[in-house]
Please model this.
Amino acid sequence: MKLHITEEIPIMKDFPQFIEYLEKNKIELTRTSENLKGPDLFRLNQLMSEQVADTTKKSHQRIYPVLHLFYNLVVEGGLFKKERKGSKIFLIPTERLKEYKKLTLTERYIFLLETFWVDCDWDKLQEGGIGKNPLGSFSIWIERIDKNIIGEIHTLKRITSDLFFWGYFLVYFSHFGFWEVTYKPKEGYSKSTYIGKTIEITPFGFIMMKILGLTRKLDYWNLSQRKKLGDFKGKPGAPLAIKESDPFDEFFFIFGEGGSMMSDSEDGDKDIEEFEEWEEEKFIEAFISVFPEGELKNTLHRDSEEDGFKEGNYLFKIILNRSNWCRVKLSAKHTLEDLHLSIAGVFDFWDDHLYAFFMDGKAWSGEAISDPRDSGANTDDFQIGELGLEEGQEIMYIFDYGSEIRFRVKLEKIDDEDEEIEEPVVVEERVKN
Model:
């Protein structure tokens, strides 16, 4: 049986409405969370096929699970980007959106599924609702699905107790057409609570979930999850190669297909095993055969499919506050450790405190590259040019985990025409003692 993507699948019906609204209106984001504002959310909600009830123009994005999903899809998929103008942040369309519109309906669907599966942070997708992130249990649950239950209505407890607590993800997978869900009344619960009552898995959803669960395991394919495990360089689907140290026993572990466990390290420094047998493949390859011939050929390129190293000189503005800031220029070959040393030199920091760069700009998020003395991904292992940074992007630097001295680090320019500098240069500084 060949599958077909139609506009009756909720996401294919609602997502175009979402995009059209963003294109036709000037979208200013909230300053703190950088999400859509209440008035825009209220109007967008009215355009959706299934609307969230009892909302106002002051309701936050986390109240609207579908809009929360769509916002993450357009940002993480690169269809829109955040642009700062003074103290304001706007959401503007990209050239990538034009390329998306050239795809067939099936190709658009698979691109959105890939963005959801590979690029979105599932913790962020769940953060607005009551429930747990199903990332760790999805593949196990999928393997247990019996095709005999397809097309029949069952209580969630009849299927699995885990599914009962998936919260917003019950809504997300329903919008992708995997199942239809009814929910328990919200009396006594917050608006962001979605507790499933019954579920009917569609034949389409059964096939798609089997492909995802068996060939696109989340631990390997979700990039946000990989980063939280300390693997910032891995490509989607590649075996995990993660080095972790036990501060007491100095045991080192390597995880992943083909990996092994090593212990009794004398120097606390073991090379991570190379996985030569793994061959990279595109996300869409597992789905081509289940759709009619010719419907699924193209997708939008990923950064990993291009040269992942961006040459040039990088100009950063490091901001403590309005009165204390500096600009530092480094080459693509310098490391985050070099950037740290430049900041420490300007602000006269003693090198006896731990520090970290949070690559998503959020303090204490999972996407941290930290002091070489700390566990996880370390600053001396990452050159500036391999981080995939873009002009205008901001990351956060925190010095001293106790005092938490926080800096905004904004990449103002990448100059790939001039000769790369050999040493970091403090271009400008304004520091008041």
Notes: Confidence is low (pLDDT under 50) at residues 245-275.
